[in-house]
Amino acid sequence: MKIIKVEPLLVGAPTPGCGLLSNRNYFYILVHTDEGITGLGEATLESHDESILGALKDLEDLIIGADPAQVAKLMQVLIRQRFWKGGVVKASAISGIELACWDILGKAVNKPVYELLGGAVRDKIRVYANGWSGGATDPVIVRDKAQEAKACGYRAFKFSLAIPSWPVSDLSAVRQIRHIAETVRLAVGDDCEIMFDGHGRYDSHLAVRVGQALEDLNLMFFEEPVQPEDEEGMARVAREVNIPIAAGERLTRLQEFRRLFQKEAIAIAQPDLAHCHGFNEGLKVAHLAEAFDGFVAPHCPMSPVITAISLHLDAVAPNFLIQERLFLNDWRNEVITKPLVVKDGYLDLPKGPGWGIELDLEKCKQHSRIVAGTPRLFRPDGAVCDW
Ligand SMILES: [Mg+2]
Q1: Is residue 221 included in any domain, yes or no?
Q2: pTM of this prediction?
């Protein structure tokens, strides 16, 4: 079997809501073969669509003619035979290709991908909602949105607060975060899991203050308390805050995850299969975490395609914790022909060959590419903050 064509497909997917939200395109990659099997991957990297298109163009001569059944070797070629190994743009483009190859492999033998990897070790996949608040910062709206998400079948909820903050000490920001966290806990009740995403907004000193302010609310994890490259800072937060730390959505190399585990900076790895060089690398991260008695909770705030793909990793990783899913109750859920349905906190394992899903191409065509945008945050003095 040979790859004969790589077809990017961009679907405009603005995020509805009331806060600072990123408008993105879903970046799908269709890999066509000479045997008539087409594989589906996703490489969504918000606000970097032209970069991904360019990276695919740069790698095209290595991909066309390759055998998708030798996906592991193709990955070695793509990562190592252009001298420059990576960065998240190249890693995302490569991820999209790798994921499509696995889809082809499953379709070629008429089995779900997880059955090619020893089979599922669980019957269904625990899931949590992200993005359910629509970016709201008003506690009344947050409360209503949390109850709406719970009514849609979720039993675990991640929240975040996109407000600018001062470094080291910002009592107002800590108070607002605490207030929102109390609101979410009250809205969903004591039997639901909640988690807080710092989104890398804080330095380690402020992150310790934020984390300690949330300790009594029984959070499952505190995500990206600091920027992921601040490994010592993250380790300090992990030492000083009594909430497990999770991170990894912006990492692309196994070695980066290894350093975080070695430094006891994280308990939970969050590889994003659309960024970390694909499924096999994500699975390596899961195994690495297992060796440190850690857990894996794949990052996934994008389209239902990458969610469905992630379910295959969740199925086979013994140390799987919980799967992220963007809260969708509109057309975005229907870009795949059989939309995923959350039931009492779980998603079913996909049953069909490959990833077990197909794009609804008619639906995709109805939502043409948009101008993507990532929100920008500034402090009162005009200085730049991380969103
Ligand atoms: Mg995050």
Answers
A1: yes
A2: 0.97
HSE-up of residue 342 (Cα within 13 Å, Cβ side)? 25
Domain assignment of residue 378, yes or no: no
In a domain, 386, yes or no: no
The two structure tokens encoding residue 35: 């045997």
Q: Which residues have CB less than 5 Å away from ligand 1 (the ion)?
A: 197
pLDDT at 373: 84
Q: Are residues 99 and 119 in the same domain?
A: no
What is the CA(334)–ligand 1 centre distance, in A? 24
Give the distance (Å) from ligand 1 centre to CA of residue 45: 14
By mean pLDDT, which of 49-58, 185-194, 368-377 is the weakest? 368-377
Domains contained in the chain, number? 2
Q: Rounded distance, CA 113 to CA 352, Å?
A: 9
Distance 307 CA to ligand 1 centre (A): 15
Ligand 1 centroid to 20 CA: how many Å? 15
CA 175/CA 154 separation, integer angstroms = 27
Q: Are 326 and 197 contained in the same domain?
A: yes
Range of the domain at 101: 3-111
Instruction: Tell me the catalytic residues.
Output: 199, 299
The per-residue pLDDT for range 276-317, each reduced to its tens digit, is 999 999 999 999 999 999 999 999 988 999 999 999 999 999
**Extended beta strands in 93-187, E state:** 124-130, 156-159
